[in-house]
Design brief:
This protein has 5 helices and 13 strands. It is of the alpha+beta class. The protein has 2 domains: about 130 residues, no CATH class; about 120 residues, Tumour Suppressor Smad4 (Sandwich). A 6-stranded antiparallel sheet has the order 4-3-13-12-9-10, with no helix packed on it. It has a 5-stranded mixed sheet with strand order 6-5-7-8-11, with no helix packed on it. A hairpin with a 2-residue loop joins strand 9 and strand 10. Helix 1 packs antiparallel against helix 2. The protein starts with a helix and ends in a 7-residue tail after the last strand. The structure holds zinc ion.
Length: about 290
């Protein structure tokens, strides 16, 4: 499989398992950034085609209150045809926009339109692009900015006071130890420009996770190739994790992470990927492990 195919395969898998576009793109960002212009264009077209198909027949995990209604008079079709007058109409209510769907045009070429077009400013060159585009038409860079702390949705335990066990500062290290072993991984998510992915590599793949559990019986224990993402919340000085639509799930102290859920990792947590258990500890330099 080419890198392009691998990226697309992982993208589709994550989307099929309930991740939103932004989260999926963020995880794949370091791999996408290695693609040349032609490959990016091809990936962009492939992703658009996937999203159109998803809008027509969403998998059970992607169905929601905003799922498309069948078009009037259509025989089970859900594609809404939107004429140019409507397309350039002033912005409607948020609820109306939510119903806006990608549509196919009469020429059957793939287009990506919304009833109320929304423009997205390219974070690299500043040019306005249509929402729904993955890459900037002008400079070819990714349109979604890297994940920041403002769009993480942290589910708190109802206790707003930060716990000492979740403190993870600029100097801290995240140590993941395999249960029943002395082997461990020392991570510095705050030093990484992208989210760290924990998973397992497969033979012949160019896309390896940052923490590769291949040699730890990961396949037998139900670890996915791209299983969990880890990132640093600078604002709150915490480490956050999110399941990447893994086949067998991620668990913190026995509690399963839901799709799109972002959870705070704490010193002493037991992190389980499928059936592979990692013991979490935070190491703070100058002192001992808290
Ligand atoms: Zn640009």
């Amino acid at each position: 499989m080419s890198r392009l195919q691998e990226i697309y395969t992982e993208y589709a898998r994550m989307r099929d398992n309930g991740l939103d576009t932004k989260s999926a793109i963020n995880v794949l960002r370091p791999h996408i950034e290695k693609l040349g212009k032609a490959d990016r264009d091809e990936l962009s077209a492939t992703i658009k085609a996937y999203e159109m198909q998803l809008a027509e027949s969403p998998p059970p995990s992607a169905r929601s209150a905003s799922a498309p209604e069948p078009a009037q008079g259509g025989k089970g079709g859900v594609i809404k045809r939107i004429n140019p007058q409507q397309a350039s109409a002033p912005p409607e209510s948020a609820a109306a926009r939510k119903e806006a769907l990608p549509v196919s045009d009469p020429d059957a070429t793939v287009v990506w339109k919304e009833a109320a077009p929304q423009l997205v400013k390219c974070p690299t060159c500043g040019k306005a692009n249509q929402r729904g585009e993955v890459f900037c038409y002008a400079c070819g860079n990714l349109l979604e900015p890297p994940r920041n702390t403002f769009d993480t949705n942290i589910l708190s335990d109802g206790d707003s006071k930060p716990l000492e066990s979740e403190f993870f500062g600029p100097e801290s290290h995240l140590v993941l130890r395999l249960r029943g072993s002395t082997e461990s991984y020392d991570l510095r998510p705050q030093d990484s420009a992208h989210e760290l992915v924990i998973g397992r590599s497969t033979a012949g793949s160019a896309m390896n996770p940052d923490v590769d559990l291949k040699n730890k019986q990961a396949a037998d224990l139900g670890v996915s190739r791209f299983h969990l993402s880890v990132f640093h919340d600078k604002e709150n000085q915490a480490v956050l994790v999110s399941d990447l639509g893994s086949a067998n799930g991620s668990f913190i102290n026995g509690q399963r992470l839901l799709a799109k859920e972002v959870r705070v990792l704490r010193h002493g947590d037991e992190l389980r990927l499928g059936r592979l258990v990692l013991i979490v500890s935070f190491r703070h330099p100058g002192g001992t492990t808290r």
